[in-house]
Amino acid sequence: MKTIMQFKDINIEDIKNIAVKAGDLIMEIYNKDFQIDYKDDKSPLTEADTKSNELICNKLQELYPDIPLMSEENKQTDYEIRKDWEYYFCIDPIDGTKEFIKKNGEFTVNIALIHKNTPVLGVVYAPALNDMYHAKQNEGAFKNNQPLPLQTNNNPKEKLSVVASKSHLSSETQEFIDNLDTKEIEQVSKGSSLKLCMVAEGIADIYPRLAPTMEWDTAAADAVVRCSGKMTYQFENDEPMLYNKEDLLNPWFVVK
Fold it and tell me: How confident is the model over 3-36, as pLDDT tens digits?
């Protein structure tokens, strides 16, 4: 495999352009009537998910044919093969399909590059909001080309801004929020991977997710979090979250 030397050669502008193209295609479908299908796990699927996935996978393979792909909408490679991957792209062609269907704008195109078990590059594009987050290890994290974080909370004991899921708020997550050690809690709901980006940006201090997610739901935004100087911690042991596990289900986590 020739990918070991390629990280520095991966042009994040290429990845951003792919996300924008996918976003344009998604918005064409978003602005008309579209059919909703359901996958085996009862999660919704639209024409936008499949077309965005096809575009992203094709473009990445054209540009970086040596780097394997993992996408929510593709058949997953056996762990025996993928455990040896040095680098791979982790893709969620639309994160927040429920928000897409509700037409509230809070959905994202997510493309991450994972090195072994760590996200080292991420692009999160919200086409309906026209917001672009991008990050590359050693080069920083950005929102619409502004370096992150954009703001910092200097008095967390006085007030914490907490962001939680719009469509998947578990009772465990709410209990965690209610027990935070601060005088005042401001709780905000948001769809998709934008929640992780809000912590990277500094407009939220913490994002607890004590409910199921998959690796592709978080990978790109997690790169943005890490490159902004924050971290996504496993809830159970406070260790950084890991990727390319045998089971692609994320553990419960807290971004802070």
Answer: 444 688 899 999 999 999 999 999 999 998 888 8
90-100: pLDDT as tens digits: 999 999 988 98
Give me the chain's average pLDDT, please. Answer: 94
Q: Which two tokens stand for residue 5?
A: 């030397």
Residue among 223, 248, 246, 229 nearest 115 (CA): 223
> Which has the closest alpha carbon to 190: 208, 178, 175, 172?
208
Q: Report how far residue 104's alpha carbon sits from residue 124's, in angstroms, rounded to the nearest whole number.
A: 17
